[in-house]
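Supplementary notes for students who missed Thursday's class. We covered one full example, reproduced here. Read the sequence, then the structure, then the short commentary at the end.
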Amino acid sequence: MTSQRLLHPTDGGAPNAGAKAGFNHSAFSSAYWLSYFENNKKDKHSFVWPQYLDIPYSLRVPIIKSLQRFQIGETGDGNHLRKYAKTLNDPLYEQCIDLFVKEENGHALVLARIIELMDGYLITWHWSDYAFVSLRHLLGLKTEIFIILTAEIVGKCFYKACADKLPDQSLRTIFSSIVLDEIAHLKFHWSFMRKEMQSFSWLIRRAIYFFWSAVFLAICCVFIIDHGETLRALGKSPRSFLVDCLSLYKRGAMRALLLD
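Structure (token representation):
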């Protein structure tokens, strides 16, 4: 049957366990998040894939190009992230990371199917994916999480634009489901980073915020240049997309760095 995981009108809640329990900014619980990921896996519904997608050619060409790049970005094995997670000596967090990576890989399969239905093809390399992977591997776990959060915020905003603007109802439902997953992923990583940042002074956390903000803005600008044709085809102005990204980033970064 068609997935019933529709986008919350406020775009602020997470599905399943996340929506029920809320999010305590003062504490991170690996057990809670493991429960969320396990329940989310169980609650997944199979999508009814149409034989034809009602996407005009003027939108089909740019959307394929963008989805190709997102698809390759969702296919990572997560080995580097798993290695650093293991150093925390928290087996439950390791399981959370494993399920997070599997959810991302699940998104890659969904995107691959969409690309196939639009008569596109999959790519095996793109400079943007190489750049993100290189940045993630520069330092330790915290740096990797910061870069992942940057990519997740931009991805969430792009998938939300697809869920809102695509003319095909089946695709809107599919992208709404992905958006819900991305919202939960953001809250998972924000909550973890909030715990990790507690040992840092206010001055250091503030400095991290300004540096992270500069990196985030630069990445957003590069993304908009690279995907501007798709955004315009979706009826989403680059300025509006940037505002969406920055708004979500500010809320999350302030929370993660205990500056809220």
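Commentary. DSSP finds ten helices and no strands in the chain. Residues 1-23 have pLDDT under 50 and may be disordered. If anything here is unclear, bring it to office hours.
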